[in-house]
Design a protein that fits this description.
This protein is α+β, with helices and mostly antiparallel strands and about 100 residues long. Helix content is about 40%, strand content about 30%.
Length: about 100
């Protein structure tokens, strides 16, 4: 079965409040057995006009598991903590 991934590009607008989101999102990732592949770190655009800010990539056991994570009570708590602290662009992707 193909893995599922959550890929996010985040513009943090309130770093102090965003720390609360990070705490709850970490708990949600753990509760859903996600493997964090990328969380912040350097980026360099190699082609195109994408301007990544904070990139996060999490691997799940399946595409369905990635979607279930987003809709979970655990991640809802994190999303509520993030309100007003960041602009989130997030996709679920089926992988290999």
């Amino acid at each position: 079965m193909p893995s599922g991934y959550i890929i996010a590009n985040v513009r943090v607008t309130n770093p102090e409040q965003y720390e609360e989101y990070k705490k709850w999102s970490t708990e949600a990732f753990k509760a859903h057995n996600a493997e964090i592949c990328v969380r912040g770190g350097q980026t360099q655009v190699m082609e195109g006009d994408w301007q990544p800010e904070r990139v996060v990539i999490a691997k799940f056991s399946s595409f369905e598991a990635a979607k279930a994570f987003y809709d979970s009570a655990e991640y809802l708590r994190a999303r509520q903590a993030r309100e007003g602290a960041a602009i989130m662009r997030l996709v679920a992707v089926e992988g290999v």
